[in-house]
Amino acid sequence: MEIEEFVRKSLGEWSSMRSGHSLAFKHFEEIVSDIKIKLISQNDPKFRDFITSTGYSEDQAVSPFEIEWEGHSNWEETGEIKDKLRGQSLLIPIKQSSNSGIILRSKGYTEAREAKSSYQILSDGTIIFLTTYEKTSTEERIWFIHQNVRCRSSVIKSKEMNAILQTSFASEIRKLKQ
Amino acid sequence: MEIEEFVRKSLGEWSSMRSGHSLAFKHFEEIVSDIKIKLISQNDPKFRDFITSTGYSEDQAVSPFEIEWEGHSNWEETGEIKDKLRGQSLLIPIKQSSNSGIILRSKGYTEAREAKSSYQILSDGTIIFLTTYEKTSTEERIWFIHQNVRCRSSVIKSKEMNAILQTSFASEIRKLKQ
User: Fold this and answer.
1) Cβ separation B146–A153 shorter than 8 A
2) Residue B85 Cα, gap to closest chain A Cα (Å)
3) pLDDT in tens, A30-82
4) A15 pLDDT exceeds 90?
5) Range of the structural domain that residue A64 is part of
6) Which of B48, B58, B91, B175 is most buried by its number of CB atoms within 10 A?
7) Residue B128 touches chain A, beta carbons under 8 Å
8) Which portions of chain B are predicted below pLDDT 70?
9) Mean pLDDT of the A160-173 span
10) Mutation choice for A interface testing from B1, B22, B28 by most A CBs within 10 A
């Protein structure tokens, strides 16, 4: 599988059940979210402005897409937590080989700032993203278990302490194709 | 990675946080378990009796091991549920290539009876088990994110309805090496 196919398979509206595990505290977090994933035209000013700001050229981009999410946690939803549960991010894949490359993100997953992830796609179609932020690094994995069901796991590590802070797992069901 | 190394890396006592997602009902289940994984000698009568009963020969087995688990769910723990949360299983890998083969299980994961899983190990070390039971089929994945931390996911499908019944994800931390 190549990145264009991964993006194509991900388009549409998804309902997500996500569990977070805080390993040090044996604490479980539960979040139910709605997620929308759609292609972005390479003529869209959002696309042009963001890729220009990164120093990459428009010709290098394949299948840019946007993710929008809105979630509800079992934790108290106030201020910062509530803000973390909704958002959107523009993602621009840049291929370096048929099954690997980088993804530019206008907003990161673990820290809400621009980020650059590397990705590789395994022989069974699982895609693995690695992202290094200022204080943390994250590994995300996504694999399809049905054309309308995908699994997504993440591991967040503290760079300073070299410790695993949190793992998470989401089961996502597509409600609508784009 | 080959199966012997996977077994070697898994030996010891683990503390597991596991989340189950019932997709149809958007229901979350949380289980905290203790898991012990130990090698079994090929001279152990348990090993000899079980492999003889399967029709495979002792020479084909590599790194037979035993898993013992005891869990505590957030669901009401009575009768059948309580029994499901504790148990042990003898597992005997049989290699068919350097990164694939089968695993004989004295007790299955989804249905509590003898089972035969196929396994394959991906290029990043992730191991995938496929098991077909009478009414369900299960895909399990295990991958190490640190020498003392592993992730384990499962997907349970109903064969009759061709539906995904449940997914689960466990974060497991090793407390003691064997």
Assistant:
1) no
2) 18
3) 999 999 999 999 999 999 999 999 999 999 999 999 999 998 876 665 555 56
4) yes
5) 3-176
6) B91
7) yes
8) 74-84, 108-112, 178
9) 92
10) B28
We report the CATH number of the domain holding residue B142 as 2.40.128.20
| ipTM (interface pTM) | 0.88
Which residue, among A14, A15, A17, A165, would best test binding to B if mutated, counting the most B CBs under 10 Å from its CB? Answer: A17
How do beta strands B136-146 and A136-146 pair? Answer: unpaired
Three state DSSP letters for chain A: CCHHHHHHHHCEEEEEEEEEEECCCCEEEEEEEEEEEEECCCCCHHHHHHHHHHCCCHHHECCCEEEEEEEEECCCCCHHHHHHCEEEEEEEEEEEECCEEEEEECCCCCCCCCEEEEEEECCCCCEEEEEECCCEEEEEEEEEEECCEEEEEEEEEECCCCEEEEEEEEEEEEEECC
Residue B46: its H or E element: helix B45-54
Point out the residue among A28, A145, A153 whose CB comes nearest to the CB of B17: A28
Contact across the interface for B26 and A19, Cβ inside 8 Å: no
What's the pLDDT score for residue A10?
Answer: 97
As for how many domains chain B has, the answer is 1
Best mutation site among B171, B174, B175 for testing chain A: the one with the most A CBs within 10 Å? B171
Among the partner residues B21, B151, B167, nearest to A167 by beta-carbon distance: B151
Report yes or no on whether pTM surpasses 0.80.
Answer: yes
**Residue B93 three-state SS:** strand
pLDDT at residue A50, as a whole number? 93
